[in-house]
Amino acid sequence: MVGRPNVGKSTLFNRLVGKRLALVDDQPGVTRDLREGQGRLGDLRFIVVDSAGLEMVEDDSLQGRMRRLTERAVDEADVCLFVVDARAGITAADEYFAEILRRRAKHVILAANKAEGRAGESGVLEAYGLGLGEPLRISAEHGEGMDDLYRTLVPLADQFEAQNIQQAPVTDVELDEESDVENDESWRPSATNPLQIAVIGRPNAGKSTLINKIIGEDRLLTGPEAGITRDSISVTTDFMGTPMRIFDTAGMRKKARVTEKLEKLSVADGLRAVRFAEVVVVLLDVDIPFEQQDLRIADFAETEGRAVVIAANKWDLEEDKPQKLNELREAFERLLPQLRGAPLVTVSAKTGKGLDRLHNAILRAHEVWNRRVNTGRLNQWLSVMTEAHPPPAPGGRRIRLRYITQIKTRPPAFVVMATHTDKIPDAYSRYLVNGLRQDFDMPGTPIRFTFRDQG
Ligand code: GDP
Ligand code: GDP
User: Fold this and answer.
1) Beta bridge partners of residue 451, listed in sequence order
2) Ligand 2 in contact with 346 (CB < 6 A)?
3) Which ligand is nearest to the CA of 347?
4) CA angle at 85 for the pair 81 and 88, rounded to the nearest 5°
5) Ligand found nearest the CA of 316
6) Residues with CB under 6 A from ligand 1
7) Under a CB-based contact definition with an 8 Å cutoff, are residues 288 and 272 in contact?
8) CA nearest neighbour of 367 among 356, 376, 359, 375
9) Atom of ligand 1 nearest to the CA of 138
10) ipTM score assigned to the predicted complex
11) Residue of 352, 256, 240 whose CA lies nearest to 248
12) For binding GTP 1, which residues are annotated in this chain's numbering (predicted)?
C-alpha cells in the first residue's frame, strides 16, 4: 500500500487487516514506518504492507529513509495498491509516487479513496491522468468499493499462485543465478539505514539504564525523532560502530532534550515498539529471570516475527557467574523452546560490562533474520532430509514433499510444495524446521514454514 500521507492508507489497512494495528490520525505523517498485517478480502488472504507517511524529500533524513523503505516494499510486493485522495484531487506528490510505481512495481492497482456516495468525482477523473489505468472508487472509511477491489485482486492472486507453485521448480537453476538475493546487502545497517531495535522487559529490569548507557557512551547520531505512534520516540545512535535506531515509547512525551534521561516505559508501550523493531532485546533481571511476564514478552516478539536477543541484566550483582549462567541456559531452553538457539548474553547496564557481547548478538541475530538461502541448496537439503527420514504414508498413500523455496526474509519464510499436506504430522514439520535451523545456521530467528498442497 503506497500513497502520500493522509489519503487513508491506515484506514484501509485497518479495514483489510481487521485488527487495529495501525494508528489513524488527522495529522499527516503520524504513521511513519512499514507495518505488516495479514489481510483478508472475501476468500483472499494476503500480506498487507502499509508504507504510510511517505515523503518526497531525497536526503538522509527520516523522510529519505522512509522513501527507501517504501521502494523496498514496492520491489518485494506482488501488487501495489496506490491510494490517492479523490476529494483532494491529484497532487505533485501523487505524481511522484506514480512515477516510482511505473518504474518499479510489478502490478499497480490505483484506488481513489474517500469516494463514498458520489463524492470526489473530479478527483477520480484526475486520477485517470496518472496513467495507471482506471481508478477504483473506494471508501476505506465506509467500506465501499471493496467488492471491486476483490474482483481486481482475484485474477492477480491466481496468477501469482500459479507462478509460485508451478514455475518455481522449472526455473530453479535460473532462479539461483538471477534472482537469488544472497548478494543483496541493502539491509545491512548503515548511517542511512540504522538497525532498528526495541528494548523490552518487565519494570525495573534496567531498560532505561541500558538505553541511557548506550546513548551516553556512544555517539548520538540524531536526536529524539517523533516516532511511529503518538507517544513514541526513537533515537539513532552509533552503538559500537553500528548505527542503531532504538525505539522507545512514551519515553519523551514532553519533548525532553536529548541530554535528559529517558523516562520509564510500560510493558504495553514496549510491546508496541516490537512491531517497529527488527531485533528485540528482551531484558531480564538476572535475580528474577524468566518469570511469566518475561515469557509473554519473548513469546510476543517471536509471534510478531522479530529477531530476538535475550540479555540478562545486573550481571554485576551475580556472585557465582558460571553456575548462574548454566541455570539461565537451562531455564531458557525449557521455558522458551520456540526461541531455540536465540543468543543469551549477560550484561550490566549499570557498569557497561557486556555491552560488546550485546552489540555482537544483535548484529548476528539481525543477519540471520535477513538470511536468504539459495533455492538449489534448499532442495538438496530437502532430499537428504526426506531420505534420512521419509514422511509417513497415511492409509498407504505416501506424502510427497516436492519442492522447497524461501519466499521471504525478515523473518525467513519457507514454503514446501507437497501432496496430502493435511496429513503431515506436526512432529514431521518440527523435524524439518529444526533441521533448517541447524543445517543453515539460523538461530535466534522465528522461521515461518508452510506446506502448500499440490494435489
Ligand atoms: P494515511 O496517512 O494515508 O494513513 O491516512 P489515514 O488513514 O490516517 O486517514 C487520513 C484521514 O482521512 C483520517 O481523518 C481518516 O478518517 C480520513 N479518511 C480515510 N478514509 C476515508 C474515506 O474513505 N472517506 C473519508 N471521507 N475520509 C477518510
Ligand atoms: P526499567 O524500569 O526497566 O527502565 O529499569 P531501570 O533502568 O529504571 O532500572 C531499575 C533499577 O535497577 C534502577 O535502580 C537501576 O539503577 C537498577 N539497575 C539497572 N541496571 C542495573 C545493573 O546492570 N546492575 C545493577 N546493580 N543495577 C541495575
Assistant:
1) 416
2) no
3) 2
4) 160
5) 2
6) 3, 5-11, 24-26, 31, 52, 113-114, 116, 139-142
7) no
8) 359
9) 23
10) 0.56
11) 256
12) 3-10, 50-54, 113-116
β-sheet bridge partners, residue 236: 222, 245
Strand 401-408 relative to strand 413-418: parallel, antiparallel, unpaired?
A: antiparallel
**398 Cβ contact partners less than 8 Å away, ≥ 6 residues apart:** 390, 391
CA–CA gap between residue 194 and residue 246 (Å, rounded): 9
DSSP-derived pairing of the beta strands 219-226 and 232-239: antiparallel
List residues bridging with 394 in a β-sheet. none
Whether the ω angle into residue 411 lies within 30 degrees of 0, i.e. cis, is yes
Report the alpha-carbon distance of residue 343 to residue 92 in Å, rounded.
Answer: 47
Per the annotation, where are the binding residues for GTP?
Answer: 3-10, 50-54, 113-116, 201-208, 248-252, 313-316
Specify the residue for cell string 530437502. Answer: 382
What is the predicted pLDDT for the residue at 233?
Answer: 60
Query: Is residue 6's pLDDT more than 50?
Result: yes
- Tell me how crowded residue 250 is: count the other CB atoms within 10 A of its CB: 21
Q: Residue for cell digits 492497482?
A: 109
Q: Kindly report the backbone phi and psi dihedral angles of residue 448, in degrees, each rounded to the nearest multiple of 5, phi listed first.
A: -95, 130
| Cα 373 to averaged position of ligand 2 atoms, centre (Å) | 40
Average pLDDT (153-162) is 75
Q: Report the C-alpha gap between 361 and 123 in whole angstroms.
A: 51
Residues 6+ apart with CB under 8 A from 14: 20, 21, 22, 24
**At residue 277, what is the residue type?**
A
**pLDDT band at 442; cut points 50, 70, 90:** confident
How many angstroms separate the CA atoms of 387 and 169, rounded?
A: 19
Q: Residue 138: name the closest of 108, 109, 113 by CA.
A: 113
Predicted confidence at residue 176, as pLDDT, reads: 35
Centre of ligand 1 from the C-alpha of residue 425, in Å: 45
